[in-house]
Design goal:
It comes from Raphanus sativus (Radish). InterPro entries: AB_hydrolase_fold (IPR029058), Peptidase_S10 (IPR001563). GO terms for molecular function: serine-type carboxypeptidase activity. One of its GO terms (biological process) is proteolysis. By secondary structure, the protein is α+β, with helices and mostly antiparallel strands. The protein is built from six helices and eight strands; from the N terminus they run E-E-E-E-H-H-H-E-H-E-E-E-H-H. The strands form two sheets. The chain has a six-stranded mixed beta sheet with strand order 4-1-5-8-7-6, sandwiched between helices. The chain has a two-stranded antiparallel ribbon with strand order 2-3. The N terminus is likely disordered. It binds 2-acetamido-2-deoxy-beta-D-glucopyranose (NAG) (4 copies). One 2-acetamido-2-deoxy-beta-D-glucopyranose binds next to loops.
Length: 249
């Protein structure tokens, strides 16, 4: 929900999974962030939380978050962090309408300070300094991977905002920097009876995948392929190399 427009110069989307290996330091959730009912959302069997995380109290900066638990045995499931960058050029209107509904903002515990302007997908009010948009994500990704956390980077192969070739090259360079060998040579993967994209893996930890026929917003353009990819990621499986593979169970 936070658009990092220019920050998304190198990566479209990064998904990271963290397995808390039986550690107890993760304290519960702030109950006041529990989303009791989200307008328009059908009845769901999982708990969801939304609110702000303070990142800089001195200058009053917070980041909005949305957290969804697994429907069953959430305490045993890995934690997935989804960092979504990029501008969405197509679905601005419906989002703008929905996220400006007072009852939606109330349900999500958003806009607590009653800002004097509307929410929009992309705003110049955040006023990122140009120099910030030049900060590379690669050192951070490297640290995450060095802590043995699997990272998948994916890109729609019809993304004309951030063409996938640049991301693919950068990921290959990152793998080289980590001294990773190619554990899966670049090949196609399947969804139902069709090629759904291409995938490669380095050091059994770093995966780069494309989604065929998807543009900048992958789940929007190719929802079934995106769900299949996401479900393989969450289950710690590689993307299937044949057509005889259950969709997402
Ligand atoms: C915040 O809330 C106020 C008052 O309800 C509303 O007028 C404004 O458009 C909202 N702004 C944002 C950024 O959500
Ligand atoms: C960002 O980096 C590019 C390439 O190194 C450089 O040309 C540009 O001036 C930088 N922009 C800012 C605002 O630092
Ligand atoms: C990769 O290998 C080179 C040469 O052996 C070494 O200097 C470097 O520290 C290694 N990098 C990592 C991230 O392990
Ligand atoms: C296809 O994937 C399966 C499961 O990961 C693996 O056992 C098999 O060797 C792969 N086949 C080819 C041709 O890569």
């Amino acid at each position: 929900m936070v658009s990092y427009g220019a920050l998304a110069v190198t990566m479209v989307v990064v998904v990271v999974t963290v397995q808390w290996l039986g550690c107890n330091f993760a304290e519960g959730y702030p109950e006041e962030d529990l989303v009791v009912r989200l307008p328009g959302q059908p009845k769901v069997l999982f708990r969801q939380y939304a609110g702000y995380v303070e990142v800089d109290t001195k200058t009053g900066r917070s980041l909005f978050y949305y957290f969804v638990e697994a429907a069953t045995q959430p305490e045993t499931k890995p934690l997935t962090l989804w960092l979504n960058g990029g501008v969405d050029v197509c679905m601005t209107y419906e989002r703008k309408f929905y996220f400006n509904l007072p009852e939606v903002q109330h349900a999500l515990h958003a806009n607590r300070t009653r800002l004097p302007y509307e929410w929009s997908m992309c705003t110049s009010r955040v006023n990122y300094r140009g120099i910030d948009s030049n900060i590379s994500m690669l050192p951070l990704l490297k640290r995450i991977i060095q802590n043995k956390t699997p990272v998948w980077i994916f890109s729609g192969d019809q993304d004309s905002i951030i063409p996938f070739l640049g991301t693919r090259t950068i990921i290959r360079e990152l793998a080289h920097d980590l001294n990773f060998s190619t554990t899966l040579p670049y090949r196609h993967w399947y969804h139902r009876d069709q090629v759904a994209g291409w995938v490669t893996e380095y050091g059994k930890l770093l995966t780069f995948a494309t989604v065929r026929g998807a543009a900048h917003m992958v789940p929007y353009g190719q929802p079934a392929r995106a769900l299949h990819m996401f479900s393989c990621f969450v289950r710690g499986r590689r993307l299937p190399n044949n057509t005889h593979y259950p969709d997402d169970g």
